[in-house]
Amino acid sequence: MPRQRWRTRTTSPERSRVWWIGMLAGVLLAASCTGGAGTSAPSEGSAPGFPVSVQQEYGTAQLSAPPRRVVALMPTDLDIVIALGITPVAAFRDQFGQDGVPPWLAGRLDREKTKLVDLNNLSIEQLAALRPDVILGGGPSLQPYRERLSQIAPLVGYEQGYNVDSWQQRVTTLGKVLGVPDRARQLLAETEKAVETAKSRFSALAGKTYTYTFAYTVDRMATIGDERNHTTQFLRQFGIAPAPAVAKLEVGSAGSAVSQEMLGLLDADLVLVGYPGADSRKALEAHPLFQQLNAVRRGTYLGIDINVTSALQHPTVANIPWLIERLSPAFEKAAAG
Predict the structure, then answer these.
(1) Are 235 and 271 in contact (CB under 8 A)?
(2) Is beta strand 256-258 parallel, antiparallel or unpaired with respect to 220-223?
(3) Coil, helix or strand at residue 143
(4) Which of 88, 149, 221, 282 has the fewest CB atoms found within 10 Å of its own CB?
(5) Is 216 exposed, middle or buried (0-12, 13-18, 19+ CB in 10 A)?
(6) What is the pLDDT of residues 34-55, one digit of tens each?
(7) Is the torsion defined by CA of 82, 84, 89, 92 positive or negative?
(8) How far apart are alpha carbons 261 and 40 in whole angstroms?
(9) Which structural domains are found in the chain, ordered by start?
């Protein structure tokens, strides 16, 4: 059967570069001669719900049939694709996860069938050679590659914007794009049930306060209390709210800057601090002002590693159950306090 036909429209049409079209044609010709055939998509009109159009940051992405060769270039999209039961031909490499895979996906990604790619050194030629039917991803990281990626396959970015689309919205969108909307609805229901179960278990958290801070170093910290942030939205599902002192801070692109002299502002019923490594954690936990926090003294402070931090900042249907399990000890202590 013929491979899926596609086209991507943008709200302001752009002229493709002649050199890129020539290079792409050569790459695709070589791939057709030497690469495996892969799995063909159904012919146009043979699949329920197709063709599909998605209005998103790059304009309108259109797919005539369910894609069979999927590339997931953002970590949240890889989570969703795997949870939907789809094996991508290429995916984002997690620089902090073992073998390039985050811990909540351990054992769920077939490394023999999925090529892991580094966004800091993205090879457009290698992606083109994989002959994808769709490329998932968006935001600032992919902006330099947007035009060239769109020449390979439909590029499905975010509908409202990077770090704006909710985890519920993204799984619904990708379920539609990948031709598995029923499975997406099932995942959404299962994940929301897991959240509700934890909320009931720690019902005493209602009305409590928290702070969440990432400590690059003792002299360079950022705390997040912005209601638009995914971390805030996720934690609010359990009935807890950002501490008022943090919520009043000026919000920058990476949260609100906090110096070591301001450590007292981080006190709350529950204090979460993320660290990039052991050295930064050791330095902050040894700081006299940090040791004076009530949360530290009563045991409702939790230091979290880069993997938990990543899941907390970018919750998905794949990592939320894993995240709840790791936050539960701190939730339990804060609820009992």
Answers:
(1) no
(2) antiparallel
(3) helix
(4) 282
(5) middle
(6) 333 333 333 334 578 899 998 8
(7) negative
(8) 60
(9) 6-179 (3.40.50.1980), 197-336 (3.40.50.1980)
